[in-house]
Write a structure and sequence with these properties.
Blueprint (H helix, E strand, L loop, with lengths): L5 H5 L2 H17 L6 H17 L4 H13 L11 H15 L4 H12 L11 H11 L17 H8 E9 L4 E8 L6 H21 L3 E6 L2 E2 L2
Parallel strand pairs: 2-3
Antiparallel strand pairs: 1-2, 3-4
Amino acid sequence: MAVITYKDIVNNKEIRTYLQNGNALLGVLGYTEHSLRHAAKVAETAGNILIQLGYSEREAELARIAGYMHDIGNVVNRIDHAQTGAVMAFNILTRMGMDPEEIAPIIAAIGNHDEDTGSAVNTISSALILADKSDVRRTRVRNSDFATFDIHDRVNYAVENSTISVDPGQRTILLTLTIDTEICSLMDYFEIFLARMLMCRRAADFLNVKFELVINGAKLL
């Protein structure tokens, strides 16, 4: 069996093509960007979370791989993209010669990253969920006409800064957001993101840490 690295995944033309085309499909449907930048950010964040919590470098590498590939199913359809993506990842990683023992937790993580159908089922999925749901930023909004923003556009555009940090000593994962409340109220934020924040809390629980949310200096979770 081949030892597949995160670099192998990033340099894979097939994976890159599906991610780029999936992002284009979502653009047609009016969704926020799910570009290679998002894939890389989620990958790096997921790996860093596990490293800082004391997990092995290889487990962190598997989290990076899952993080990079997690939205690959969007090339088919936004609906059920997590499950479609898991099947696609299984096919690609199998053809690359990856050990099934490593493929299994990766596809479980990809198949469980969406808040509508998934949940934290292993350490890799927990790190992926926390990394994915914390990538909220103004630059992901593709609609350039503020007058036509829907609530999703407003919420993402209102986020001026988003950082996720790990405190291994206190066993906490902190998501800190700065939101322009002239664009989006905190109530609007929670209307859209409550399910995601609850998913983050459960993911942190799986890693035996506490998830905390601070918005504009106020601790809300």
